[in-house]
Write a structure and sequence with these properties.
Layout: H1 3-20, E1 34-36, H2 47-58, E2 63-65, E3 68-71, E4 89-90, E5 94-97, E6 103-105, E7 111-112, E8 118-120, E9 123-130, E10 137-139, E11 145-146, E12 150-154, E13 178-180, E14 197-198, E15 201-202
Parallel strand pairs: 1-2, 2-4, 3-5, 4-7, 5-9, 6-10, 7-11, 9-12, 12-13
Antiparallel strand pairs: 8-9, 14-15
Length: 214
């Protein structure tokens, strides 16, 4: 065997080893509980039925195959959304719309894949937060990547902290990665915890030392 051939085979062996050991950031793991997402947009069957089905679908879920649509959640019906805090990956888009709850507790969400996007206001959105009159905090302190698609905020008059987030480090799409339309978020100044201060800049998703942008 020539030295050139031996070197080529060695390179192939190293490449195969690297590829076989590579794991996609949004690939399900053995211990994940995979749940099927939805593609309903803003349609729904009625407040109580909608919430009961939603809770049953996503309770203990860690991996959403498809889209996560959080819509029509009233503070009077959907008083407990804590079950959302286990979700780590959504392969499609995340739509949050027409909710009046105070917070959306997606505490563990790391990746929004954007394999499907939600078309609204002239863009393909991986994260759309729209027409949420009561929403004050979008709690996603673990979010590190939006792989495809962009972000939009529209008519969420009480939503705070969005303007403190550095979306360029999260959204891989660099052409207008995050659109905050007129009235998209609260005009009140958001005050992050002192624990979120990095080189004089504070970035956070909500109140609390555990809500800093990673």
């Amino acid at each position: 065997m020539s030295l050139k051939t031996a070197s080529f085979l060695l390179c192939i062996s190293i490449l195969v080893t690297l590829v076989s050991g590579f794991e996609r950031v949004d690939a399900p793991r053995a211990h994940d509980k995979v749940c099927l997402g939805t593609d309903n947009g803003f349609s729904y069957p009625g407040p109580q039925v909608h919430y009961d089905r939603f809770r049953s679908r996503y309770r203990d879920c860690t991996y959403v195959s498809g889209n996560l649509e959080i819509t029509h959640m009233s503070r009077y019906i959907a008083s407990d959304l804590s079950f959302l805090s286990t979700i780590e990956v959504v392969t499609g888009y995340v739509l949050i719309g027409l909710v009046t709850v105070d917070t959306i507790p997606l505490h563990s969400l790391r990746v929004i894949g954007g394999d499907n996007t939600f078309e609204i206001m002239g863009g393909n959105r991986a994260l759309a937060v729209v027409m949420c009159d009561g929403l004050q905090e979008l709690q996603m302190p673990s979010l590190q990547e939006i792989s495809k698609g962009t972000v939009i905020f529209y008519r969420n008059p009480l939503l705070m902290f969005v303007n403190t987030i550095n979306w360029d480090t999260i959204v891989l799409e660099k052409n207008n990665p995050a659109v905050i339309a007129t009235g998209g978020v609260s005009e009140s100044e958001s005050h992050c915890s002192a624990a979120c201060d990095i080189d004089g800049v504070k970035r956070c998703w909500a109140h609390g030392d555990n809500m800093c942008q990673i």
